[in-house]
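This follows on from our talk about sequence and fold. Can you supply me with one protein entry, sequence and fold together? Could you add the entry underneath, on a fresh line?
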Amino acid sequence: MSHRRKDSKRAYVIAGSGVAALATAAIMLPYANAGQQEQQGPRTMSAKAAAAMGTKLADENGSRTAGWFIDSKAKRLVMNVLDEETAQRVEQSGAQARIVQNSKAELKKVSDTLANGASMKGTAWSVDPRTNKVSVLADSTVDSGEWASLNKTAASMDGMMTVKRSGGEFKRFHGAGGAGQNGQGQQGQQGQDDQGAGAAAGQGDQDAGNDAGAGDQAAADGVLGGDAIFAGGVRCSLGFNVQVDGAPGFLTAGHCGNEAKNWTSDEAGAQALGTIQDSKFPETDFAIATLDDAQAEATSAVNLDPLGQGQGGTQEITGAAEAAVGMQVQRSGSTTGVTDGEVTGLDATVNYGGGDVVNGMIQTNVCAEPGDSGGAMFSEDKAVGLTSGGSGDCTQGGETFFQPVTAALEATGATIGEGGAGEAGQQQEQQQLP
């Protein structure tokens, strides 16, 4: 009886509120139900929103998670968890939960074992959240004995480590000045006569430009992410234009910054560009420079046609973002132009040999070649990485490793675009989750 009395009372209230209230209730109810259903399971979202949610869920659930990745086809965040309770919490937040066997702590022990002596020149490793294992790559310089040793180590890791070959040789991707900047996608060294003629021609062009009123500021204003930069016979690529203590500057690779202090935007050395203020390599791989013309406008954008092939276009960069496995990315560099692919691993370690070991890298299947070092890796309007090195080329493909931009910004105090130093941009993405 009481149930009927409640229903009658509710019906009386609705009827007494008039037709307008009834129409409003009819409209709002389906949307309310849809919202409740959306929160009960995995939902589609943008890559930026997925990356922000992955970081948030990992922080909230701590050791009960074991990494995450973006399913780019389904447009979903996939979160590795260790138990059913955590899986339910993750799915209530809108991600897809996947219960896995190996914890973050266990996988870190595998990485530590490699770092403490089981690695060798020509190897790289990272945690692969898709397989829930540590993935080790061995390049062509790893001989049969070393290959056998790696596989023996993998066998002792109780299924937490895989080993596979990588084509080519792991190397840093800086190049010699003058080659590969004409859309050929290959690296070489010009003869002394050609260099002399090129330098003379470049100087003549610069003189003519100055006579026409185009000075160093115009040159600095026009240099964007992916464009060639030169110093001491070395060619690299500019990463991203930044602000350093209110002054214009740029980021590039640390192994490029180690080569020389003063950089120009032309091979002849006539167009002064910037001066290196700090350079870190090995262990990490980034350098920061301030522009020699403090009044120059360092546009926060990437050149989508750094080879000058007439395709034109730029990509505005509004801030920095953390990489995520499965994130679709593009790279711009002065040897191979713009190429694309996706992030395949995080917190990667690469042993280039000779004591040159870098940590905390972003691993991708985006190709690159010598001269592309320092170049911009980005996802839509967010800066993600600086080109470090890898194996293969843009004919046969290979693996390429990038210094995370967010770490470089944090270390240098620089800011990029409107999104600041990366962390603020990441927080903003979290606030805008769908």
About this structure: The chain has four domains: 2-38, 47-99, 104-165, 171-188+201-424.
